[in-house]
Amino acid sequence: MGRGERGVVARGTRLFEAARAVADDHGRAVEAVRAALSPIQDAAVRRELDAIPVARLQDVTEGRLRLGHVEKSGLRTVGDVLDAGPYRLRQIPGVGQRTVDQMLAAARRLSEAVHETVAVHIDVDRPEPGTTALVMALQVLVEAGPDARRALDRATALSERLGPLLADARPAAGRLRMLLAGPEKRARALAAVEEIGSLADEAERAGLPELLAQASVDLLRGASSDVAAWVDFELRSADYYGLLAEISGRPPDTAAAEGFLPEEIAERVRTQHLDDSHRRVSLRGYQAFGARFALAQRKVVLGDEMGLGKTIQAIAVLAHLAAEGRTHFMVVCPASVLVNWTREIEARSALRVTVLHGPDRHDAFADWRERGGVGVTTFDALRGFPAPAEGEVGLLVVDEAHTVKNPAAKRSRSVAEWVERCDRSLFMTGTPMENRVVEFRNLVRMLDRGVADALGERDALAGSVAFRKAVAPVYLRRNQEDVLTELPSLQRTDEWEELSASDEEAYREAVRAGNFMAMRRAAYTRADKSAKLDRLREIVQEAGETGQKTVVFSYFKDVLAVVRAALVEDSAAGAPVFGPLTGSVAAGRRQQIVDDFAGVQGPAVLLAQIQAGGVGLNMQAASVVVICEPQIKPTVEHQAIARAHRMGQVRPVRVHRLLATGGVDERLVKMLEEKTRLFDAYARRSAVAESTPDAVDVSDTELARRIVEEEQARLGMTDEKVAAAE
Prior knowledge:
globular; 6-stranded parallel β-sheet; 34 helices; alpha/beta; 3 domains
């Protein structure tokens, strides 16, 4: 046996050892996380068990237990029962062995259920030794990034192939061994050597030795310091929590993560391959499923609730298709998020990005058509570009797709033409309906006429469940509460204020004039005597005292101007004021304002027009949200709140909606509650329906007219009009 064969075996052995080293290094990093997590998790489970009353054991045993004597003995919770153990429980008068056995069995079942469901929350504002150790252990894996996961996957596959081959090739390591081996073993050894050589050549061409070596270095590096680890956690908490869910074995409920799709569709999606070679970001389980859904179903609406990473899922689809050889892709989005899309694609993938916007957009379009990559453009700009040839574009992504729900609009017709020419289309919207459930049907029609036509009156009358099933082939929606177990709490407070005499006077003037919009902002007309503005100042001051950032939303530019003037002049605010972000602020400038706001150490205030700031921009630096007046559409408020309460938020979010008693605000709040109920019934679980006629809202114009007339009647102004006419 020659030197060449021994050299091949040596190459294979080195590759095998490098692969094993990566697996071992990754395993040690994961075990470090588990070791740090275990006491925190046990403490969380204990807190849950101590909060469950003993009476719950009856539910587990379907009422068979009699627990009066147990409660009288001082054992109040399930945690107390587990602590007591069988000996102490048997000492309780009136409690026999059978009751003890049933009680402990039921308590253990509850304990197991809590273990499976309890979520660990890392409090960035109250670091403790335990959570610091956990964050530092997680940082090793977060810093190693997707390349380490890619290296581990390839190392595992390589080890499985090389291990048996190296065993078969062992006789080839020495001349004497080959001479002593029988003819069958010699033949097997020679075949193994040849295959090892092929594997080693293939690995070297793919740069695998370098990938494995770098992964081991990254996994052994360790966290630099506890301070650096906490800073990184605050910046990239979504990555930390994603790893934590994976390592703890407590992923979100599978049915919820899969959008409650019918099993036949869910199974097809699960088996869809997802290539990560052009991607630079790890996906959470539900995100990987969303990307696979888009690939398997080809033309779909991804309707995930705000803050679940729809952009990341779209990038995963783009990266997969690029790995398969597709060269041209198009993203259409509002101008306000153009910069964000460009940044995300560049940061999260290896794909080339071309911005098709502004005065040079036609030159940029020609360059994109020639060189390929991802073109990112706006709805208005898309109308000026020629539609692609059949199959030229591998994927069309339409962000905020609910804005093309009107089939008669020019932007809708333009998008529809591109959808028809593209092999795949991915519509993205966290708000598939706004006022009318029927509008979603128009989006579906662009993607799959058959599914849209199947949404008939019978399904509408059957209710939302029928529609969920009918629309499942093209619609996937997941909600934050179902898949983001780590998301901090969201506290909503309606701040009802009595109008001051000055406010009341301004409001009556607006009602008398029949001016609906003036009625909505009357509470801010006279800033020096505004009850709402006084409360807003208090909220901002309270947030500033605890170092929190605040974002203030209003529909009206002049209200934001009043708020800005008050906060700038109010020394008690103690925080810099940014904005306002309005529709007239250029897209790039909007993103810069948000970045500057996030970059401030300590408290700051960001002012934003709710239609502009509530779409596309991520504001999770803020943990306090103020909405200056109720909005006509519930989705506008939901979107705005979700800009702060989203994946990546590490602090509880408090939302304050400022309301005035006795007028237009009360009427709008009641209407919002009804609209939200309708949305939840039809859209929250991968479903949307065409409502029965009495569930369809009146138009905004009709609504405004009705409220004005009702307020004029309430304030006795109808009689004034009659008297004036006489």
